[in-house]
């Protein structure tokens, strides 16, 4: 089993959420449950407009 840090590189890129775009939201599970799609949401419904990628 590899650690996230061994296969991923961390970087920070700021993104402003646009009201007229639909975004996919993901969640990262603990205990080897992986990354899953939480759902989609229009930008107008996302409260925090400044997000980090």
Percent of residues in helices comes to under 10%
* Run of helices and strands: HEEEE
Largest sheet: 2 strands, antiparallel
Question: pLDDT under 50 segments (min length 5)?
Answer: none
* Structural class determined from secondary elements: mainly beta
Overall geometry comes to flat
Contiguous helical run count = 1
* Strand composition percent: 35-45%
- Give the integer mean of the pLDDT values: 90
Strand order of the largest sheet: 1-4
Let me know the number of strands. 4
Rg over CA atoms, rounded to whole Å, is 14 Å
Overview of the molecule:
The radius of gyration is 14 Å and the shape is flat. It contains one helix and four strands. The protein is mainly β. The protein has one helix spanning 4-7, and strands at residues 14-16, 22-28, 35-42, 50-52. It has one domain. The chain has a two-stranded antiparallel sheet with strand order 1-4. The protein has a two-stranded antiparallel sheet with strand order 2-3. The longest helix is centred in the first third of the chain and has 4 residues, at 4-7. The mean pLDDT is 90.
